[in-house]
Design brief:
The chain has 217 residues and is of the alpha+beta class. The chain has 2 domains: 17-139, no CATH class; 143-206, no CATH class. It has 5 helices and 8 strands. The protein has helices at 59-69, 133-139, 143-163, 167-187, 189-206; strands at residues 25-34, 43-47, 81-87, 91-92, 95-96, 99-105, 112-119, 122-130. The strands form 2 sheets. It has a 6-stranded mixed sheet with strand order 2-1-3-6-8-7, covered by helices on one side. β7 and β8 (122-130) form a beta hairpin. The chain is elongated.
Length: 217
């Protein structure tokens, strides 16, 4: 008997609504790419078992994630979980085409309602549930994957520190990443030390030169 399941799948380089017609899907985020030049779908969220087909949330769902988690740093999404579903009522160009929406997320204590854009100039409340600790535990990556993610985070942090144009922007960047940097101190001290060394060197480079009072003017 020939298996038709492969030939009827939508041709796409991303997760789409048709992939979820069989029911909700909980994904565990392993990486996030942001393309600032993309107008429609600037964010690509990669997850365990994605077959290199990331979820590219619309801007409304991206804003929802930042509201739900209270963070704007995309790298802090890594390690969190989201339950997705197909909403057949999503419209595009006035036509119902269906779209992916958020059913629940990890890292919130209780279900919550947030206001999201429904149509141009109109907002509606979206209720989002919680993903319990048991589901989060099942979705945890293996230790090798966790270390690889930590190394990527550390490398990105060190590189960004090296490009900081001034002390104020450097401090703002570190403040946004401080919780995860602190976690590295116990789990991966060598990565924490690399960030600490980069931060110290960049601070020294950005400090204004000391004035020698003994030099006559």
């Amino acid at each position: 008997m020939a298996d038709l399941s492969k030939v009827i799948q939508p041709k796409s380089d991303q997760l789409n609504a048709d992939d979820l017609v069989g029911g909700d899907r909980t994904i565990h985020i392993r990486d996030v790419h942001v393309n600032q030049s993309a107008k429609e779908q600037p964010v690509a969220i990669f997850f365990d078992g994605d077959d290199n087909k990331p979820w590219k949330p619309c801007k409304t769902m991206t804003r929802a994630l930042t509201q739900l988690w209270g963070i704007n740093d995309s790298q802090q999404f890594i390690g969190r979980s989201v339950t997705l579903y197909t909403d057949p009522n999503v419209t595009w160009g006035g036509v119902k085409v269906g779209g992916i929406r958020i059913r629940a997320v990890s890292h919130i204590d209780n279900p919550i309602e947030i206001a999201v854009s429904q149509t141009k100039g109109k907002r509606a409340l979206m209720r989002v549930g919680t993903i319990n600790a048991e589901v989060r535990q099942i979705a945890q990556p293996d230790p090798d994957a966790q270390k690889a993610e930590a190394e990527k985070f550390a490398a990105h942090t060190v590189a960004t520190i090296g490009r900081a144009p001034d002390i104020a922007k450097l401090d703002a960047f570190i403040a946004g990443r401080l919780p995860r940097i602190t976690e590295l101190q116990a789990a991966y001290p060598e990565l924490y030390q690399a960030i600490d060394d980069a931060l110290r060197l960049r601070r020294e480079a950005l400090q204004p030169p000391a004035i020698d009072d003994d030099i006559p003017f």
